[in-house]
Amino acid sequence: MKAIVQDRYGPPEVLELADIDVPTPGDGEVLVQVRAAAVDPGVWHLTAGLPYAVRLGSGLRRPRNRVPGLDLAGVVVAVGRDVTAFAPGDEVFGAGRGSFAEYAVAPVGKIVRKPGNLTFAQAAAVPVSGQTALKAVRGAGRVRAEQQVLVIGAGGGVGSFAVQLARLAGAQVTGVCSAAKAELVRSLGAYEVIDYTRAEITDRGRRYDVIIDTAGNRPLGRLRQALRPKGTVVLVGGEASDGRWLQGFDRQLRALLLSPFVDGRLVPLVVGENATDLAVLAQLVEAGEIAPVMGDSYPLAAVADAIRHVKTGHALGKIVVTI
To answer: Record's Pfam families (predicted)?
Structure first.
């Protein structure tokens, strides 16, 4: 099968298209013929092996998983032992292992059936970003009706879902994005948009009950200035520093240390993919209450270009790889 392979950490150029064997599903796993996958900032971090802290989980000297990629949507072609929830021919989406390939293995606890009103490309845009936003809004953020919610990075993969989920909860949502994405963010349910190239979140003197920061490049002090007493800041990822050991993730560590001593909650978000949250998102999508926002689409051979695009921080919605 054709697959993107990575034998060392580095820039996107280390990724190569190669012919490799089709993987075999183990116990509790299925083999999926991948129709579409997706790219997010986490893929860039794993490709580069930066910050070095990510190598503790992905392999110290070289990637433990030779084929990168997590988000996927496709068709089950084989099942492992003791798998009864899925059968060959089922259309599924979720998180797999090595999704930048024609075939990938996925644990049954991380996939669900694909909503019928989504294409494979649309479905691939949901799993990681959608579950991250769900945890940020309903979990860490505890967003409720009539709250004032600020979503920073509102036009990106996670941010676009967060705007929709916060609006669905009955909150008044303000989105922070570039002018080019403002119309999109309003269409997702934001009643106000701040163009970050012209104004800061503190310029208008407004304060928010919940701030969901998906951009990862604002100091904690500035976020706290925009926060109401007893409010919550949810930190999704970190891209603020060039340090090779922690990069922007040092902000998460500082938030953990600072949170017990300040008025308000500073919550670094930790997300793991699971079928329960994915099923919630599938139901919301099928009901037409939320929808994935797709940006540019790339063929499998151009995964490196897709990662470069995401690395700029200016991608619209979720970048998809069609296979």
So the answer is: ADH_N, ADH_zinc_N_2
